[in-house]
Amino acid sequence: MGDRRMASIFPECDQLKQNYDKCFTEFFQKFIAPNYRHKYAINPCDRLHQAYRECVEQMESLQSNLPHPQIISDTGESRFNQLERTLEQFQVHQLYKQSCFVLPFYLRIHPSTDVVQENARHLGVIATDFGARSQEPFNQKIHTLVSGLQELDQMRNQFADVKVPLELLDVLDQGKNPQLYTKEVLERTLQKNKEVNGKVETYKKFHAALLKELGEEMPEDTMTYRNIRDILEK
C-alpha cells in the first residue's frame, strides 16, 4: 500500500508538510514502542514543524490581506500596486510579531497557554470520535500539543520569582474566575489600609494631646525634648 498523506491547505507549503508528516510518523511509531527511552526522548521533527508552521502563517497573512479581485477592478488600482501594498502590510505584520517578543513575560505566556488548551480540546474531540482517517490529524495534534508544552517549559525560568498564593489554587479548584480573587485581595488591602491610617491618625492625636499635657506639667523638660527631637529630625 502506498504512503498516502493529506496535502497542505497551501500548495506552496505542501512539500514542507510532507517532510514533517513523514518525520513525525516515523518518530511517533518509535515513541510508542515499549522499549523506547522516553526520559531522553528528543523530537527530531521540531525544525520541520516550525518551518511548515511559519510557511502557513505567512500564506495566511498574505491571503487575509489580499483584496477581492472585484474590488481591484472597481477601484481602478493596478494588480501590481495592490500586491505591492499587500507586501508592505505583510512586512508591518511581521514587524508586529517581532515586537511581541519585547512584551512582559506575563503577557507573552497567555497565547501559549491558550494554544495548549485549544489543542488539548481538539485532541479530545478527535479521540471521542476516532475513525479510519483520524490517525494522522490525531498524531499532528499530539505533536502540536507536545511542542506547546515544550515552549511553556522553556519559559519556566522567567517565572522563577513568581509566587502563586495557595488561596488562588483553591479558587481555581472551585471553578471561579481568578480575577475575583484579585478583586477580593484588593478590597481586603484597601480595608486594611483604612484601618492602619485610622490608627496612625489616632496616635498623632494622642501624641499632640500628650505633649500639651506635659508642657503644662513640665514645661522645661518638654522644651528640652522638643529641641532634641528637632535636632534628630534634621
Q: What class, by secondary structure content?
A: mainly alpha
Q: Uncertain segments of ≥5 residues (pLDDT<50)?
A: 66-80, 91-103
Please tell me the total number of domains: 2
Question: Beta fraction of the residues?
Answer: under 5%
> Assembly state here?
single chain
What gyration radius follows from the Cα positions, in whole Å?
Answer: 32 Å
User: What's the helix-strand series?
Assistant: HHHHHHHHH
Amino- and carboxy-terminal Cα gap: 92 Å
Give the tally of β-strands: 0
Task: Give the overall average pLDDT.
Answer: 72
Gross geometry? elongated
Total helices: the number is 9
Subunit structure: Component of the Mediator complex.
Subcellular location: Nucleus
Family: Belongs to the Mediator complex subunit 10 family.
Main location: nucleus
Characterize this entry briefly:
This protein has 234 residues and is an all-alpha fold. It has helices spanning 14-31, 46-65, 69-75, 79-99, 105-128, 135-154, 166-173, 178-217, 219-233.
